[in-house]
Amino acid sequence: MSSSLLHSPAHLPPSFALHLSQQAPALLESGTLTNSSIPVPFLSGAETAETWTICENLMISCLRTGDDQSAHRCLQKLTDRFGDTNERVMGLRGLYHEAVAGDNSALAHVLEEYESVLAGDPTNMPIAKRRIALLRSMGRSNDAIAALIQLLDASPTDVEAWSELSDQYLSQSMYSQAVFSLEEVLIITPNAWNIHARMGEIFYMSAIAAGSGNDSGVEKALVDSMRRFCRSIELCDGYLRGYYGLKLTTSRLLPMLSQTSKSSSVTTNAGTSEFNPPSLATVQKLNQRATAQLADIVRHNSGHEKAFEGYDQAEIIAARELLDRDTQRIER
């Protein structure tokens, strides 16, 4: 169990997070967690590098499942060990207050406390990020964007902040700004295949939002999306999300390309350069590759093969439905 608490509980399934939080009272009383036959000191006796990571993650698991009392005990132990003024402890205390807030007025009071702390120390990153998260949860997207920009002025290499800024822009349908933010992420982590796929999703959403009002703009957005998905699976072979996106974009591109001349070029909106779409044959091959890979992943995962057990079941279901729709369209 302690090995599970060494990883962020935000990525744990809700059922497993509930299981961990149900063990919290006993763990806090005993003062010891065990991993197989190896005892791990917990909040008593000699400290280890894992002790306080376990305590923090146990607190977050308890907050996720509504065990505020156990969460407060974990927070108190962290406070006793590191002090009230430790920035990480301050961020966790703010998270606790947000979780137990009963109404919007209580959340507004927490926000005021964040702003008071930042007025005295603008470089307190945990509090700055908690303030941004709270603004977002309160539906104040414009304020959250402004706060993110201010944070990035102070810390321009913060990948998490750039990613969050992209999400905020996307929530406002500001697609070009969302793409720009992820481009900043790729400058720092160029081989992040999930970020390439996320950019592909944003290009795809921008194409769908544009509809048929600007055929050249839609086609360019779809091609940009296709290329990003190709890059994601180039970096991570077997990446289901990449193949899913490639299947979607190529399926939309094929009828568009079949209506245009292969040798023609489409002028971009800016009118300063030319955009040459890929050939119809290339897109057909990519579509066939994506279809084959998705079918392979779904088949092996359904057969419970060990090498294919790590996929998210929601993504497997979505891939199966996409393949079924394609099959039904061919049969018609």
Describe this structure in words.
Helices cover 70% and strands 4% of the residues. It has helices at 14-30, 51-64, 68-82, 87-100, 104-120, 125-137, 141-154, 159-171, 175-188, 193-210, 215-235, 240-258, 280-302, 313-331; strands spanning 32-35, 38-41, 266-267, 274-275. The strands form two sheets. It has a two-stranded antiparallel ribbon. Strands 3-4 form a two-stranded antiparallel ribbon. It starts with 13 loop residues before the first helix and ends with a helix. By secondary structure, the protein is mostly helical. Strand 3 (266-267) and strand 4 form a beta hairpin.
Helix fraction, binned, reads 55-70%
* Mean pLDDT over the residues: 86
The fraction of residues in strands falls at under 5%
Largest sheet, in brief, is: 2 strands, antiparallel
Structural class: mainly alpha
Order of helices and strands: HEEHHHHHHHHHHHEEHH
Low-confidence stretches: 33-44, 265-272
